[in-house]
Specification:
Blueprint lengths: L8 E5 L1 H14 L4 E2 L1 E2 L1 H5 L3 H11 L4 E3 L5 H5 L7 E3 L6 H10 L2 E4 L2 H9 L4 E5 L17 H4 L2 E6 L10 H16 L4 E3 L3 H4 L9 E2 L22 E13 L4 E2 L5 E2 L4 E6 L17 E4 L2 E10 L2 E5 L11 E3 L4 H4 L7 H6 L9
Parallel strand pairs: 2-10, 3-4, 4-5, 5-6, 6-7, 7-8, 8-9
Antiparallel strand pairs: 1-11, 11-14, 11-18, 12-13, 14-17, 15-16, 16-17
The protein binds pyridoxal-5'-phosphate.
Length: 348
């Protein structure tokens, strides 16, 4: 195949900032070790760009959701340090765990049985303490299939860690009960936000994801977490509009006076949905704001270049991506802003 020409979208990952974010969360985790949620291709920032930096910073526990995510992570860290949150759904999943050495997170009595049938061995156990997502109920802890597991990490997951909610203390109390019933090597309760709830929540291991990648789920993290990902898009074409000219689908925007515009290579498939192109939305040239005009339309959007009239085709614009600032007006959560970054941002 011919060599690819340069792309019109690019994503820069600052691995030093990523490592700093992990260290900041590790410091906040006190005595507890700090792991990393690296599922969904490190929240779309790329396993190859992120996992080595986390490993070199000192992270030893990596969490993915799917079995299909093990291999990419295992090219950077020993498989025994990877835990698979969805657990085994069938004999093939359990066999894959046995063959690769990745640790299954057991979420139910039936998953525990599958694990035993595959030969068993060390595993993680997720206990449900009130989120009612994945996890074994407290009442099932005495089931022989669960009681006979060789549990390395006993874990649970908080439903409301990003807010001050009575659920947090309630889940903490239930998790403490579970730690007294289930023999385990280490206990783990909190995600990024939960780390800020204080040492009572830290146990032996914390499991941040979002905040590693620049997300700020609670104000306590605001001064500690910095932006990791910097998406940029190129201008494909420039135009000069006259007063009365309209722009894009449904002619939603009409120029009130003559203005230069730029057609930018950025659209839905790149995670830039129409909801992100509303009132006040803009791309950046350094600190200069270039307002987005009209509807985001499939693979393109249009910016008003009045503040930077010398820009030309091929010039790069930055997509604002300081997650806590961008999320409120985007119609998306910080998680969604990250994980919907499209394939076309990936280096090839
Ligand atoms: C995704 C996930 C995490 C990380 O959560 P963040 O809110 O992204 O920090 C931790 N634990 C479990 C079980 C998860 O699914």
């Amino acid at each position: 195949m011919a060599e690819l020409p340069p792309p019109s979208l690019r994503l820069t990952i600052d691995a030093d900032v990523l490592a700093d974010n992990w260290r900041a969360l590790d410091a906040m985790s006190g005595e507890a070790k700090t792991g990393a949620a690296v599922k969904a291709d490190c929240y779309a920032l790329g396993v190859d760009a992120c996992v080595p930096a986390l490993r070199d910073a000192g992270c030893t526990h990596f969490f993915v959701a799917h079995w299909s995510e093990v291999e990419a992570v295992a090219s950077h860290v020993p498989p025994a340090r990877i835990s698979v949150l969805h657990g085994p759904m069938n004999a093939a999943d359990a066999a894959y765990a046995q063959q690769t050495g990745a640790a299954p997170v057991i979420n139910s009595v039936s998953q525990a049985r599958l694990w035993h049938e595959s030969g068993g061995g060390t595993c993680q156990l997720m206990v449900d303490t009130g989120i009612n997502r994945l996890g074994v109920s407290l009442g099932d802890l005495s089931d022989p299939a669960i009681a006979s597991l060789d549990v390395d990490i006993l874990m649970s997951h908080l439903a409301c860690a990003d807010e001050d909610n009575v659920m947090n203390a309630r889940q903490l109390a239930v998790f403490k009960q579970a730690t007294e019933v289930v023999p385990h090597q280490s206990a783990s309760l909190t995600n990024s936000a939960g780390i800020a709830l204080g040492s009572a929540y830290h146990f032996d291991l914390t499991r941040p994801g979002l905040a590693l990648y620049g997300g700020v789920p609670r104000p306590e993290l605001a001064n500690k977490i910095r932006q990791v990902a910097r998406p940029e898009a190129a201008i494909l074409q420039t135009r000069s509009l006259s007063a009365g000219d309209s722009v894009g689908y449904n002619a939603e925007f009409t120029a009130q006076c003559a203005m230069p515009t730029g057609v930018v290579s950025l659209g839905y498939a790149d995670g830039f949905f129409r909801s992100r192109g509303g009132e006040g939305s803009h791309l950046l040239l350094g600190k200069t704001r270039l307002p987005i005009v009209g509807k985001v339309s499939m693979d393109m959007l249009i910016v008003d270049l009045s503040n930077a009239p010398s820009l030309r085709e091929g010039d790069w614009l930055e997509v604002p991506f300081h997650l806590p600032d961008v999320a409120p007006n985007s119609g998306l959560s910080q998680y969604e802003l990250l994980t919907t970054l499209g394939q076309r941002f990936k280096p090839r």
